[in-house]
Amino acid sequence: MPSTFHGLETAKRAMFTQQSALYTTGHNVANANTPGYSRQRVEFTQTEPYPSAAMNRPDYPGQLGTGVKAGAIQRIREAFLDVQYRGENSKVGYWETKADALQKMEEILNEPSESGLSYTIDQFWQALQDLAVNPTNDGARSVVRQRGIALAETFHYLSDSLNGIKTDLKNEIGIAKDKVNSLLDQISQVNAQIASVEPHGYLPNDLYDKRDLLIDELSSMVKINVDYVKSGGDPAPGAMGQAVIKLANDAGGDMAVLVGSGGYNQIDVTFGGPNGSVDYVKVGGKEIAFTDFDSQGQLKGLIEGFGYQDADGTEAGTFPDMLAELDNLAYTFATEFNKVHAAGMSPNEIADEENRDTNFFADNDSADGAITDREGFASRIGISQDIKDSLDNIANAVQTNPDADPSELALADLGDMTNILNLADVFNQDFDYGDNNQLANLRSYYESVIGDMAVESQEATRLSQNSGVLRSAVEERRMSASSVSLDEEMTNMIKFQHAYNAAARMITLTDEMLDKIINGLGTGGR
Asked: DSSP letter string over 299-353?
């Protein structure tokens, strides 16, 4: 037969279990505003009934219940939503970084505006048109020289500003790399803490939440895959184990292990490409060429903005590409403009009866001003020393008999404006501004460069917004499942309180019954 105190034991178990549920509810309420916290609940489980099935069991019509116990304290979390969130988070980190870099570029180029390069080009062309009206006017010649200087300075400003942002991006890459390594270290430490608790049969829910919060933050930096391995010992059925985090590519495949059960591998970025661009991303001892580093996230977005070594061994990237386009523009225009200017005759050449092939533009870093190197020319373009020394070195005329023997060089007319018109026509002629065999005039080519940048910026902003909307939708679903609802917790508090009071009342009732049996029996004949 069951124990005399069977009722007390059943009520006691109920009280303790409801008390555990109340404590857990209080823990949920206390952490309602804690970032990354997942609400917890007590899994109520019936205790073993009496009697147990055996050959010598008492003759009872059925098994008596023995009460309830707290089987486990589990957190409410949906792993599928975590995977979705981290996938969208890596996209947001990547596209937001690209959109931010392109926005900075748009602010520097500032087109269309009166401070942009296209306006300065138009002003230089207009100055040539004004000089063509009166080729002997020193004021008009001075304006042409100053507009040329302004054009060169605009190229300098754009090139220097873009290189400044490029330097900032390199610093941000270092900060991002350190942040990734810090997160990997913290995740590894939490893994070790979890591994020390789980073998004893406990569920370290708060440690799980801390680790998930760190993994969420890591997913914005690089795309990751997360698996779990058992901690060993005698873990509870709901134990998650230690997280194994792998660097993932866009197809979802694994590229390298970031965090394992025994520690973590540091990530590093090497700047060994052309012009100090990124050539490799290292994970532990594994080198991954950046052209193979297709793991979306903030780190990839920063490197693409700063510059990397492409498959051909040349520098590529958002800012390097724009700097190369400015170099192409400045180099091609300056060399073609100089060809026409050198073929003409200036007042000084007419007076000396000598054609000296004077250039208008020059390379500021060259001893003789000769333009030879295309790379970086936008930061070096300047006005030749001859033009700086004298306004009368601006070639406005053409030779009346260019085929004559040099010793019989025919003089040009001082008032001739033919070469000025030829110089103005350089703006409208089609040239190849690089290695892409794209023929276009100066304005059209620059407009195409600005247009491509605007389209790329618009696309990055759109994808950033789309990814943000999807991430927010997943986050809302995840919060609806995992976050603390104070209304729900208050309801649970009342429910568990009433159950606790009922169990306490059961103890009182059982005590009265036992008192009657123990103290009341045997007193009837007295």
From this structure: HHHHHHHH-EE-TTSSEESHHHHHHHHHHHHHHHHHHHHHHHHHHSB-HHHHHHT
Give yes or no for a contact between 66 and 48, defined as CB atoms under 8 angstroms apart. yes
Distance CA 125, CA 351 (A): 27
Q: Mean pLDDT in each 10-residue stretch from start to end of the chain (526 residues)?
A: 75 93 95 94 89 69 82 91 95 97 95 89 95 91 96 96 96 97 97 94 94 96 95 88 94 93 93 95 94 95 96 94 95 95 88 83 91 93 94 86 54 77 92 76 91 95 96 95 94 95 91 81 59
The span from the CA of 426 to the CA of 392, in Å, is 21
Residue 284 CA to residue 298 CA, distance in Å, equals 20
Burial of 463 (0-12, 13-18, 19+ CB in 10 A): middle
User: Across the strands, what pairs with 46?
Assistant: 68
Alpha-carbon distance 164 to 515, whole Å?
A: 89
For tokens 């990055």, name the residue. 460
3-class DSSP state for residue 73? strand
| Interstrand relation of 381-383 and 361-363 (parallel, antiparallel or unpaired) | antiparallel
Q: Does the predicted model carry a pTM greater than 0.90?
A: no
